[in-house]
Design brief:
The structure is a single chain. This protein is of the alpha/beta class. It contains six helices and five strands; from the N terminus they run H-E-H-H-E-E-E-E-H-H-H. Helix 2 runs antiparallel to helix 3. The radius of gyration is 14 Å and the shape is globular.
């Protein structure tokens, strides 16, 4: 399954309401719950928080990829949040993150999980594309950009 297959309006939040990393993670997990993608909010939140505790998933150039694994999902789940002003995600380059891709997978789903991370890395390599995502005014625009 390609990352693009997971991207629908109901899992995209533009702009994020939260202003710090813990709240952003909660907000994105809640988006998955509200979209009917997950049943167990607490298990997914704990999986993401546990992984984040091991080391920040804030990459560089405005990208963060909080992720985790839990038995409470059977397939790869994705939520995307956009923060034009940026969130301090303890990124490698010290800059705020504008594009947050939250991933959650089952413990035995290493393949799809790694493939999704690789696809996000490709997105991160296109600064112009990332800029257009951050400038999107709504979730529909983000979905259209990602599908083009």
């Amino acid at each position: 399954m390609s990352l693009i297959d997971l991207i629908v309006e109901k899992i995209v939040k533009v702009p994020l309401e939260s202003k710090d990393k813990p709240d952003v993670i909660r907000e994105l997990v809640q988006i998955l719950k509200d979209a009917g993608e997950i049943d167990d909010f607490d298990a997914v939140l704990k999986a993401i928080q546990d992984r984040e505790f091991k080391g920040s998933t804030g990459l560089q150039d405005g990208i963060a990829v909080p992720h985790g694994k839990t038995d409470s999902v059977s397939t790869l789940k994705l939520a995307i949040g956009i923060s034009p002003e940026g969130i301090d995600f303890d990124s490698l380059d010290g800059k705020p993150s504008n594009l947050i891709f939250l991933l959650v997978a089952a413990p035995d789903m290493s393949g799809p999980h790694v493939e999704a991370l690789a696809e996000i890395a490709k997105i991160a390599n296109s600064k112009a594309f990332c800029k257009s995502l951050v400038s999107a005014s709504n979730s529909q625009e983000v979905v259209e950009l990602m599908r083009d």
